[in-house]
Amino acid sequence: SASSQDRESAMSNHSTPPFDPRFPYQNLTRNCYQNFRDFHRCTKIMKRRGKDSSPCDYCRKVYHSLWPLSWLQRWTDQIREGTFPGKI
Fold first, then answer.
1. Which domain holds residue 76?
2. DSSP code, position 22
3. Would the N or C end of the chain have less CB density within 10 A of its end CB?
4. pTM of the model as a whole
5. Is the pLDDT of residue 73 over 80?
6. Where is this region: Disordered (predicted)?
7. What is the DSSP string of 23-76?
8. How many domains does the chain divide into?
């Protein structure tokens, strides 16, 4: 879609994600957490439908640019162990 192409273009031209009005404050914890969940939800749905999950990559780029890799690894481990504090 045009909006996902716009977001991809914005991410390729910046080292940090563009402003997201859902998260207007400097504390980016919710932004990272939401994009992490959105990415995993998106890939789960796309795989279930037998479709390419590349449209989900925008969310992955956002959370990777905002959060330390050690925290992301912990969340990934929690998903695998079934202990992640959120619905995927």
1. 28-87
2. T
3. N
4. 0.71
5. yes
6. 1-23
7. --SS--HHHHHHHHHHHHHHHHHHHHTT---GGGHHHHHHHHHHS-HHHHHHHH
8. 1
